[in-house]
UniProtKB/TrEMBL annotation:
InterPro entries: AIM24 (IPR002838), AIM24_sf (IPR036983), Trp_RNA-bd_attenuator-like_dom (IPR016031). It holds the Pfam family AIM24. It comes from Haloarcula pellucida. This is TIGR00266 family protein. Gene3D superfamilies: Mitochondrial biogenesis AIM24.
Length: 225
């Protein structure tokens, strides 16, 4: 499977070149187009309960599409939000991903949810995080461009919860307030994640929550009669 990601970092699209017999699993609704010679199978990946937990708790679609090439073909995918797409080559490891950031992966990659404790609830990620586990290529998306932050042993990296895209399982994290009550309420920052250990955190340059906070007050309200 070969790939290219044009139109980075604002409106990235994932173009996959598939050889006969190659397959890729993608989030429902991600397909832009494909050439002839691709079969599409839609199913509740992993069974009813696993798909339900991924949908309700992980923020992903209940159904996923598996695209299989019967000849040399091209498949084009795009996320829902304008932003970047990044390739990750997993090697018998797990990547924690925010909801809505999964785009596609090799079918051998297990896409699931995992209980993260109460701290993930207060961090705005719900009680569950999306996990990508196994060996093979995976592609994640962001709202805005993607930055890569390295966490060194003995150091800490603090990230606003709305800007987290993904992080490695080697990292520990705690969710806390920016400062005191006044800072939490009026600084516009809310809650942050403090990452420790050794590994990488990927962040996005825009926050969907911040955009909605700006947009919603500007929307017209229905007049009362």
């Amino acid at each position: 499977m070969e790939y290219e990601i044009p139109h980075k970092p604002s409106y990235a699209q994932l173009n996959l070149s598939l050889e006969p017999g190659e397959s890729v699993r993608a989030e429902g609704g991600a397909m832009v187009s494909h050439t002839a010679g691709i079969d599409v199978e839609t199913k509740a990946e992993g069974g009813l309960l696993k798909s339900l937990s991924r949908s309700v708790l992980g923020g992903e679609s209940f159904f996923m599409n598996t695209f299989t090439a019967s000849q040399d073909s091209t498949l084009r995918l795009a996320p829902a939000l304008p932003g970047d797409i990044q390739h990750h080559e997993l090697d018998d490891e797990t990547l924690f991903v925010q909801s809505t950031s999964f785009v596609a992966s090799d079918p051998a990659i297990d896409v699931d949810t995992e209980f993260g404790g109460g701290k993930t609830f207060f961090g705005g990620e719900g009680l569950f995080l999306l996990t990508l586990s196994g060996t093979g290529p995976a592609f994640i998306s962001s709202y805005g461009a993607i930055d890569e932050l390295t966490v060194e042993p003995g150091d800490a990296v603090v990230v606003d919860t709305g800007h987290i895209v993904a992080f490695e399982e080697s990292l520990d994290f705690d969710v806390r307030k920016v400062g005191g009550l006044k800072s939490t309420l009026f600084s516009g920052e809310g809650l942050v994640c403090e990452f420790r250990g050794e590994g990488t955190v990927w962040t996005q340059t825009r926050s969907p929550d911040a955009f909605l906070s700006w947009l919603i007050p500007k929307l017209p309200t229905p007049s009362s009669s």
